[in-house]
Amino acid sequence: MRTQTRQYISLGDFVSFRFKCKTKGCGTELSLPLQENYSLTHPAAKCPNCNAGWLRLSEVTGVTAAPQLEQLVVAIRSISEWPGVCEISLEIRPDGCGQQ
Protein backbone atom coordinates (compact mmCIF):
# COMPACT_ATOMS: atom_id res chain seq x y z
CA MET A 1 0.00 0.00 0.00
CA ARG A 2 1.28 3.46 -0.94
CA THR A 3 0.81 6.51 1.29
CA GLN A 4 0.82 9.99 -0.16
CA THR A 5 0.99 13.29 1.70
CA ARG A 6 -0.02 16.53 0.03
CA GLN A 7 0.89 20.02 1.13
CA TYR A 8 -1.17 23.11 0.40
CA ILE A 9 -0.43 26.78 0.86
CA SER A 10 -3.25 29.27 1.21
CA LEU A 11 -2.72 32.43 -0.84
CA GLY A 12 -2.94 34.42 2.39
CA ASP A 13 0.13 32.53 3.67
CA PHE A 14 2.40 34.01 1.01
CA VAL A 15 4.55 36.71 2.59
CA SER A 16 7.35 37.26 0.09
CA PHE A 17 8.99 36.25 -3.15
CA ARG A 18 12.50 34.81 -2.90
CA PHE A 19 14.99 35.28 -5.68
CA LYS A 20 18.24 33.34 -5.88
CA CYS A 21 20.86 34.15 -8.48
CA LYS A 22 21.79 31.18 -10.67
CA THR A 23 24.84 32.93 -12.14
CA LYS A 24 27.87 30.71 -11.65
CA GLY A 25 29.66 31.57 -8.43
CA CYS A 26 27.07 34.09 -7.21
CA GLY A 27 24.09 32.52 -5.40
CA THR A 28 22.91 35.82 -3.91
CA GLU A 29 19.41 35.68 -2.42
CA LEU A 30 16.83 38.45 -2.19
CA SER A 31 13.47 38.29 -0.42
CA LEU A 32 10.79 40.85 -1.31
CA PRO A 33 7.71 41.12 0.94
CA LEU A 34 4.40 41.01 -0.92
CA GLN A 35 3.05 43.89 1.14
CA GLU A 36 5.45 46.34 -0.50
CA ASN A 37 4.76 48.18 -3.76
CA TYR A 38 7.64 47.68 -6.20
CA SER A 39 5.97 49.06 -9.33
CA LEU A 40 8.49 51.90 -9.70
CA THR A 41 11.71 50.42 -8.36
CA HIS A 42 11.84 46.80 -9.68
CA PRO A 43 14.46 45.65 -7.11
CA ALA A 44 14.39 42.11 -8.51
CA ALA A 45 15.17 43.20 -12.05
CA LYS A 46 18.83 42.34 -11.54
CA CYS A 47 21.04 40.62 -9.01
CA PRO A 48 22.25 43.14 -6.41
CA ASN A 49 25.62 41.36 -6.32
CA CYS A 50 26.62 40.46 -9.90
CA ASN A 51 24.05 42.57 -11.83
CA ALA A 52 22.74 39.57 -13.83
CA GLY A 53 19.34 40.38 -15.34
CA TRP A 54 17.03 38.17 -13.28
CA LEU A 55 13.75 39.16 -14.95
CA ARG A 56 15.03 39.81 -18.46
CA LEU A 57 13.04 37.84 -21.01
CA SER A 58 15.13 38.77 -24.03
CA GLU A 59 18.76 39.78 -24.31
CA VAL A 60 17.96 41.62 -27.55
CA THR A 61 14.95 43.73 -26.54
CA GLY A 62 15.65 44.10 -22.82
CA VAL A 63 12.00 43.24 -22.08
CA THR A 64 11.54 41.98 -18.51
CA ALA A 65 8.98 39.95 -16.60
CA ALA A 66 8.64 42.72 -13.97
CA PRO A 67 5.13 43.78 -15.10
CA GLN A 68 3.87 40.19 -14.92
CA LEU A 69 5.42 39.73 -11.48
CA GLU A 70 3.71 42.93 -10.29
CA GLN A 71 0.36 41.66 -11.63
CA LEU A 72 0.89 38.37 -9.81
CA VAL A 73 1.57 40.17 -6.52
CA VAL A 74 -1.55 42.31 -6.93
CA ALA A 75 -3.64 39.23 -7.77
CA ILE A 76 -2.34 37.25 -4.76
CA ARG A 77 -3.09 40.19 -2.45
CA SER A 78 -6.57 40.64 -3.88
CA ILE A 79 -7.57 36.97 -3.84
CA SER A 80 -6.14 36.36 -0.35
CA GLU A 81 -8.30 39.19 1.02
CA TRP A 82 -11.38 38.07 -0.90
CA PRO A 83 -14.32 37.35 1.43
CA GLY A 84 -15.68 34.59 -0.81
CA VAL A 85 -17.24 31.37 0.38
CA CYS A 86 -14.25 29.20 -0.51
CA GLU A 87 -10.55 29.21 0.27
CA ILE A 88 -8.05 28.92 -2.56
CA SER A 89 -4.77 27.11 -1.94
CA LEU A 90 -1.86 25.96 -4.06
CA GLU A 91 -0.50 22.44 -3.82
CA ILE A 92 3.27 22.22 -3.58
CA ARG A 93 5.56 19.39 -4.60
CA PRO A 94 6.91 17.04 -1.96
CA ASP A 95 10.45 17.89 -0.77
CA GLY A 96 13.14 17.08 -3.26
CA CYS A 97 10.93 16.89 -6.37
CA GLY A 98 11.83 19.17 -9.25
CA GLN A 99 14.68 20.96 -7.49
CA GLN A 100 17.71 22.00 -9.44
What does this structure look like?
By secondary structure, this protein is α+β, with helices and mostly antiparallel strands. Helices cover 15% and strands 18% of the residues. It has 1 helix and 4 strands, in the order E-E-E-H-E. It has one helix spanning 66-80; strands at residues 7-10, 16-20, 29-33, 89-92. It is globular and about 45 Å long. The protein starts with 6 loop residues before the first strand and ends in an 8-residue tail after the last strand. The mean pLDDT is 83.
Mean pLDDT: 83
Head-to-tail CA distance between termini? 30 Å
Main sheet: which strands, in order across?
A: 1-4
What ranges have pLDDT less than 50 throughout 5 or more consecutive residues?
Answer: none
What would you call the quaternary organization?
single chain
Strand content: 15-25%
Percent helix among the residues?
10-25%
Please compute the radius of gyration using only Cα atoms.
17 Å
Order of helices and strands: EEEHE
Number of extended strands: 4
Main sheet properties: 2 strands, antiparallel
Number of helices: 1
Give the CA-based shape: globular
**Computed structural class:** alpha+beta
Keywords:
100 residues, alpha+beta, two-stranded antiparallel ribbon, two-stranded antiparallel sheet, 1 helix, 4 strands
Describe the secondary structure blueprint for this structure.
Elements: E1 7-10, E2 16-20, E3 29-33, H1 66-80, E4 89-92
Antiparallel strand pairs: 1-4, 2-3
Brief sketch in words of this structure:
With 100 residues, this protein is an alpha+beta fold.
